[in-house]
Write a structure and sequence with these properties.
Strand content: 5-15%
Shape: globular
Number of strands: 11
Helix content: 40-55%
Structural class: alpha/beta
Largest sheet: 7 strands, mixed
Order of helices and strands: HEHEHEHEHEEHEHHEEHHHHHEE
Length: about 375
Amino acid sequence: MTVILILVGLYIIELIILRIGIWKSDQLNINSNYEPVVSVIVAARNEEDFIGDCIKSIQKTDYPSEKLDVIIVNDSSTDNTSEIVESLIQNNSNFRMISTSPGLNSLRGKANAIAQGMRIAKGEIVLFTDADCQVPPTWIKGTVKYFDDETGVVGGFTLLKADSIFEAIQQLDWLFLFSLASSTSGLKIPLTVIGNNLAVRTKAYNSVGGYENIPFSVTEDYALVQAIIQNTAYKVKFPVDAGNLIKSYPCQDWKQLYRQKQRWGVGGTDMIFSGYVVMLFGWIAKLSILSSVFWANPWFTISTFTVMSICEILFIGKVLRRFKLLGQIKYSPIFNLYFFIYVLVIPFIAFFSRNVVWKNRTL
């Protein structure tokens, strides 16, 4: 029991340190007067159900239209995506749609779509979001204000809509993931910025040779951010800012959720050493609690699991408050059980997966 208490205690200490990282990410300098030319790139593959709302939300942003360049990349869609895009942008001179051509070498999947969008992007800063996302009017201004001469990447949070327990679990899961990314950025050991709310300085992207020069990864956002971190002097910022909070949709069933986690897990096998260390504390703590089921007093197992779970929710407490989501704490018991199982299982899924399916395409 002592060993388990030590392992769980070390994980709780890590959560406290990570919580400090979120606080540091919330203490960033801003330049509200910074208004560079901005490109927005949206890669869309068979997104007829969502692309319309995405484009309409971008059209409502409060950024000066003469400084805004929006590129919708139709990634070999076989549905009505291109027709919907064309109908919505025909009277907007700063909106363009291009269709992808086959990529070579490492250019596959979404990376290929983004690379082709980047080739024609006009912006000093490029913002990326996904076709199933809706951005707030303040998204662009709320993101570019964090750029200075030393900053190459800025991340923002994405909030999943939640109308059921299954969706609420995913919402809390994403908030934990984004909080972790924000925290490590604040601690100066940035791991990633999630690609559906990602901004990159064009010079930083070009300085690493773009996706044409980055080894293929099923998590192209992680690969790009790490390429910039490891090969340039640019810094990463990941604020907790409601002004650039994007909204998106959760997976509709367990199969879809599994494929999402599988892709993230496989991409995570390329994680840098510090990332493995961060993840290891939680995995070992959960494994030790699981082992106690077979030999320890049930109340010991329940109490250690409960204390750990409370600390995990407290870790994202600031984020929940900032985004006015404290009411979602009522879902924390079922989320913590899901998260416990997910963390233990995902390494096995990642290391033994062979085929990753994304948008009905095997990567």
